[in-house]
Write a structure and sequence with these properties.
about 120 residues, mainly alpha, 6 helices, globular
């Protein structure tokens, strides 16, 4: 089917470690908000990042508790899981260029005075 082909292309274009294993997607509850958490797909740090307020994230990046790369990866992983759970035809948030993007973000954040240690 067209939808199955689109999902396959999407899944092949994303980092495999971001994808929920197929057995977690076979029978989904009506409310999918806890599926990834219950599957223990995210690390404790990733959950802390994606559940934080923007201001708290900026503070932790500035204080070098988290890097911009870690924050970006956590949100891209969450976006990837969201795509799997709502089953859109095709939307590649992180796509095949994700590592290049993350490296550039990390480089830029290291040069930006906002993110330097005091």
């Amino acid at each position: 089917s067209i939808a199955a082909d689109a999902q396959k292309r999407r899944n092949e274009s994303l980092p495999q470690s971001y994808l929920l294993p197929p057995h977690h997607l076979k029978v989904l509850p009506r409310n999918v908000t806890a599926v990834a958490t219950n599957a223990r797909h995210f690390t404790t740090e990733e959950l802390e990042i994606i559940n934080s307020q923007a201001e708290d994230i900026l503070i932790k990046v500035r204080e070098r508790i988290w890097t911009a790369l870690e924050v970006t990866e956590a949100f891209c992983k969450a976006a990837t899981v969201a795509q799997q759970l709502v089953r859109p035809l095709y939307l590649s948030v992180c796509g095949p260029y994700w590592r290049c993007l993350f490296t550039k973000i990390d480089e830029l954040s290291n040069r930006n005075p906002l993110f330097r240690s005091h």
